[in-house]
């Protein structure tokens, strides 16, 4: 993959991410790990972007002042 570029950007005013693969395919996701896994799956990207994780499987993050 010489010269290939993968890009993830935050969507303004939202917590969603937009990923763009070097092949030109774009998708949106809520989780950075899911987006990177989707991008790195090239050329086998699932249609429509990364799968949405089960909300029960996502652990809540502590407030920043507790970290």
UniProtKB/TrEMBL annotation:
Source organism superkingdom: Bacteria
Protein name: Uncharacterized protein
Location of the region described as Disordered in the Swiss-Prot/TrEMBL record: 45-67
Compositional bias (Low complexity): 46-57
